[in-house]
Structure formats: C-alpha cells, structure tokens
Amino acid sequence: MNARIDVWVLGASVVAVLLYLLFPIVVVIGASFNPTTALQFPPSGFSLKWYQEIAGNPDWINAFIVTLEVGAITTLLSLLFGVPAGFALSRYRVKGKTLVTALLLSALVAPHIVRAVSTYLFYVPLGLNNTILGLAIAHSIGGIPFVVINLGASLRSFDPTLERAAVIHGAHPVRAVLTITFPVVAPGIIVGALFAFMQSAQELLISIFVLGTLQMPIAVKLWEGVRVAVDPTLAAASSLLVLAALGFFLLAALARRGAAPAPNA
C-alpha cells in the first residue's frame, strides 16, 4: 500500500514539474496567435498576422540572419577547440587536468554580466567589438564546454583497446581514430555542437556588450522589443525560438539514440 502511494506521489510530482516547465511555453505560443495587438492568453481568436509581420519585417529577418551567422561560427569554433580538448582530457594524462577542466566548466557557471563586461574590456584594444567574429568568439567560450562534456561522455563508453588493436594490425593512428573511434563518438560531438549553437542563439548580455544594437541577434531584438513596445510579434518570435530549440533537442535525442553501443573487448 505504501509503495503504491509512493508511486502516485512520485508520478504527481513529475507531472507537476512538467506542467510548471511547459506552462510558459504554452502561454507564449498561444499568445502569438492572438489577432489583436494585446499580448494576452488565452488568445481572443486565431491569426497568423504576427508571423507574417516577422516575415515581412527586414529588421526581424536581419536578426535571424545575424543569429544564424554568429551561431554557425560559434559552433565551428566550439568544435575546433572542443573536440581536441575533449579527446585530450578524456584519454590522456594531461598535467593540470583538473584545473583545465574547472576552467572550461567555469564558463557555464560564471555570471553572464561578468563575462560580458570582461569580454568588452578585452575586445576594446583588439577592435573586436561590434563584429560578428568577436561575438562568435565570445559565445564559443560558452559553447566549448558543451562539446567537451558530451564528447567525454561518449569516450568513456568506448573501449580504447579496439583502436589500439587496429594500430597494432597496421592501421595509421589517425585512420584508426577516424574509422573506429569517430563513428562511435560522433553523436556526442553532434549533441555538443547543437547545444553550442543554442546557447549562442539565446545569449543576451554578451551580445549587447559586444555587438551593441546596430547588428542585433534575435535575443537582443526581443530585448529591444520588450523595451519599446510589447505586442504579439514578440510572442511569435519567441515561439519560433522555442520550436527551433525543440527541434534541436529532438535532433540531439536522435543522435544519442543512433549512437552504437561500444562493443566489449
């Protein structure tokens, strides 16, 4: 009897948490279909006019383009530095490994305002403020840990003796990594890349400090919209971001499911 009660309590708790997490998403998506200029939920009707407003507004289109540009460069930089770092930290005895890992992960826990101000001051003499590349470099500081973490998790489930056996039988070490190790850890790399892109798309403070308001990614455009005038256009843009995030998480889940289990030696 007590066990059954515990199961019901646990189930109710899970449902309550899910409802708490999903409610804001439902409200935002619902408000985006409101036919009037009022940002309200539930909507008084159904209309796609605010999505059409975004599609016909050059400022919103440019914001999405800037977001894609910065996100693509951020993802590339995160992979360029995160993949070698993930391999080194997971497979080799690196001096100061604990310190290096802590420094990498500190980007995820450090207050964003601290990172934003320090990045701005660091960029001033370099002339990287107000540049797409400068913003992408700043965002990649937060993207690299996602690549390192997910790649490390994949490598921990991989049996390295398979790679060593290939080398012993005449395969070049690089070829052994590419043909044996990489197919197993590729899903982890893909997941890390997706998370790196998403954290870039939603980053606000660093984007404001580095890029300003001349070239605005979508997060800054939403922030500016809240300051100027609140209307369902903001809900429509937010809904597009939510749907993009859900799509990325679905791709990440599929990548994880597609990962072949590491065979045992």
From TrEMBL:
Keywords: Cell inner membrane, Cell membrane, Membrane, Transmembrane, Transmembrane helix, Transport. GO terms for cellular component: plasma membrane. The chain crosses the membrane at residues 7-33, 60-87, 99-126, 132-155, 176-198, 235-255. SUPFAM superfamilies: MetI-like. It is a multi-pass membrane protein. Pfam families: BPD_transp_1. It is found in: Cell inner membrane; Cell membrane. Residues 64-252 form the ABC transmembrane type-1 domain. Belongs to the binding-protein-dependent transport system permease family. This is ABC transporter permease. The lineage of its organism: Bacteria, Pseudomonadati, Pseudomonadota, Alphaproteobacteria, Hyphomicrobiales.
